[in-house]
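Journal club side-thread
Mid-discussion, someone asked how the predicted structure for our own chain would compare to the paper's figures. Pasting it here so we can look after the session.
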Amino acid sequence: MKPFLRALATFLLLGSAAFAAEIDVTQSTIKWKGSKITGSNHYGLVSPKTSELKVEDGKVVSGTVVIDMTSLTVTDIEGEKAQKFLRHMMNQDFFEVDKFPTATLEIKESKDGQMAGELTIKGISKPFTFPFTMQDGKYVGKTTFDRTKYGVIYKSGNFFKDLGDKVINDDVEIEFEIALKPE
């Protein structure tokens, strides 16, 4: 009986141990949505590039996610109009993708359905907190970030006057479903 108890104790201790995990990019999506004050909007996708996450008791507790800004897409328009829009999103008016090809989310804490850490866009890091739930084995959530805190001020009503109905809202909406690769 003693060998069984030792094996059970070892299993329980190892079962709760921390381990490293990565995002399964084939099973994960990150959607973005930007809008004007008139209510019109554009939306699309962006992909994680790499990740290094620490998991304890089956939950992400810390780590880093690198977002591939070159993967930015727009899905509400097509053709030449979509290509023109993407070129504009990737130039100096918005995300300067040639200079800053990645954004980074560093997760420092995760508890009670909230993750907290630092979001870095265009080389500017700011504290960032967002809610999540677990659904079908994925981390799922919606949040926003204020683009102007990261130097993206193009047509912001807080920086430019007399834009009329051309004002672009400062908040960018993010909706995500993130799956981890199996151990």
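Post-session note: Helices lie at 2-15, 79-90.
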